[in-house]
């Protein structure tokens, strides 16, 4: 299994297309990867064909269904998920090229047309059901805390902000923790007795495909859309769907960590307050305005020690809760617990000033829409540079270049490690339109994928 592969998917022309003319495209197969050649129209400033490198693992025609794409792109990576690893799937392309149709799909009735997310959920749930039956041969308790299911997280990134699609589109904060990982946190809740609770992004537990679909549709209904250079209902955010193998025991253990952390906050704050209070009482200003030891007060070290001891006690509760999570993972009956499939429906790339093609009718973006488009392009450039830096084994990986690459950092870890247990692999699907009027955007999409696809070959 290649650590990183790039695929191309051509979308069909819409039935109401004003110009049914398609780009001329040729493929050159190769033992490793394919090459694409695009002949630009005669009105183009660049008359010579554009030709890619041998960068593309497979090319899907407009007649290929979502099921065909799933079988070739996602299905081969799911054994990695079922051994505790991470599979990342990106859909990249300009607005209207079929990214959301590929990742999400719009037909929830026919399995042939399921988006990659729903098809993968069905495959994983079937596999987990078989594992549960094999593990629980001596019990009929379907609510066992050890039963395996899927946890779904959905959020969208817009500029420097993140929004939880499974929690009423609430705003989240992107934070880098002391563990070196990037965390998505919800709004801070102030509770009784000085407790402060900061929940992670919402995880919806799903034990059946119907549950999964209900949560998926609920989250999608909250996703933001806007005007792009192609149409008025373009996805103007990056949508990230994380599908994780979970158990009730794991979810309960994680919830306990959140509660222990909330109990720790007021105790830690009091320890700090006591230390500062005693330290300030032990100092006094002299005639020169400098702080010197206060001869009239003796710092109550016992009071400080008592507060610090209580802080250490509650910190121990937090650490115990974290160890419980680790223990649940370690003692799970199957290695798949914690395995993830991460699907990223990237916002449509924009090319506002591309003049390589004669003018075609398009919606004129407002200044705000142009700013949004530039931010999207900045995120996509950062993603490309992260992929290239990882492939080159660079000493510094520019994850902090954008919020998108920051939140994906954990999922990228181990990408170069291939298919070993706990590793990660990535796939990118380039969605492209054969429409003559979108030739410039299509070639730019293929150029992006060409650069990304060649990194795994060391070229």
UniProtKB/TrEMBL annotation:
Gene Ontology biological process: microtubule-based movement
Domain of life: Eukaryota
GO cellular component: kinesin complex; microtubule; spindle
Record SMART domains: KISc
InterPro entries: Kinesin-like_fam (IPR027640), Kinesin_motor_CS (IPR019821), Kinesin_motor_dom (IPR001752), Kinesin_motor_dom_sf (IPR036961), P-loop_NTPase (IPR027417)
A Pfam short name: Kinesin
Keywords tagged on the record: ATP-binding, Hydrolase, Microtubule, Motor protein, Nucleotide-binding
Gene3D superfamilies according to UniProt: Kinesin motor domain
Biased composition (Polar residues): 34-44
Region: Disordered, residue numbers: 17-44
Gene Ontology MF terms: ATP binding; ATP hydrolysis activity; microtubule binding; microtubule motor activity
The Kinesin motor domain, residue ranges: 3-455
Residues holding ATP: 93-100
UniProt similarity note: Belongs to the TRAFAC class myosin-kinesin ATPase superfamily. Kinesin family.
Protein's name in the database: Kinesin-like protein
């Amino acid at each position: 299994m290649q650590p990183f592969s790039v695929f191309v998917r051509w979308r069909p022309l819409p039935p109401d297309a004003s110009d049914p003319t398609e780009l001329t495209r040729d493929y050159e197969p190769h033992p490793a990867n394919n090459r694409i050649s695009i002949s630009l129209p005669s009105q183009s400033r660049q008359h010579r064909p554009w030709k890619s490198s041998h960068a593309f693992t497979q090319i899907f025609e407009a007649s290929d269904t979502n099921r065909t794409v799933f079988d070739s792109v996602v299905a081969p990576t799911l054994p990695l998920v079922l051994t505790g690893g991470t599979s990342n799937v990106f859909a990249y392309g300009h607005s209207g090229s079929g990214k959301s149709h590929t990742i999400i799909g719009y037909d929830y009735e026919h399995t042939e047309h399921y988006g990659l997310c729903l098809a993968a959920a069905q495959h994983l749930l079937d596999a987990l059901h078989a594992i549960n039956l094999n593990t629980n041969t001596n019990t009929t308790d379907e609510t066992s805390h050890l039963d395996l299911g899927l946890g779904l997280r959905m959020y969208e990134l817009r500029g420097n902000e993140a929004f939880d699609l499974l929690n009423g589109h609430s705003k989240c904060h992107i934070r880098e923790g002391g563990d070196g990982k990037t965390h998505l946190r919800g709004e801070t809740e102030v509770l009784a007795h000085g407790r402060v609770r900061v929940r992670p992004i919402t995880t919806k537990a799903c034990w059946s495909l119907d549950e999964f679909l209900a949560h998926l549709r609920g989250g999608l209904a909250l996703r933001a859309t806007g005007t792009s250079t192609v149409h008025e209902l373009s996805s103007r955010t990056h949508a990230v769907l994380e599908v994780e193998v979970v158990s009730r025991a794991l979810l309960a253990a994680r919830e306990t960590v959140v509660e222990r952390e909330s109990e720790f906050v007021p105790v830690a704050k009091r320890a700090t307050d006591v230390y500062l209070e005693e330290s300030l009482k032990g100092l006094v200003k002299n005639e020169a305005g400098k702080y010197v030891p206060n001869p009239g007060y003796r710092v109550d070290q016992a009071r400080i020690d008592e507060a610090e001891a209580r802080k250490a006690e509650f910190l121990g509760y937090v650490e115990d809760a974290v160890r419980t999570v680790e223990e649940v993972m370690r003692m799970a009956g199957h290695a798949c617990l914690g395995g993830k499939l991460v699907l990223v429906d990237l916002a449509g790339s924009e090319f506002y000033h591309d003049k390589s093609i004669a003018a075609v009718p398009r919606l004129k973006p407002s200044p705000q829409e142009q700013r949004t488009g530039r931010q999207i392009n900045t995120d996509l450039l950062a993603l490309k540079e992260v992929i290239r830096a990882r492939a080159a084994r660079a000493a510094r990986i520019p994850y902090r270049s954008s919020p998108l690459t920051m939140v994906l950092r954990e999922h990228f870890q181990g990408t170069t490690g291939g298919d070993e247990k706990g590793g990660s692999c990535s796939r990118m699907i380039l969605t492209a339109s054969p429409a003559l009027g979108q030739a410039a955007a299509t070639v730019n999409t293929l150029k992006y994928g060409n650069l990304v696809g060649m990194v795994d070959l060391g070229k």
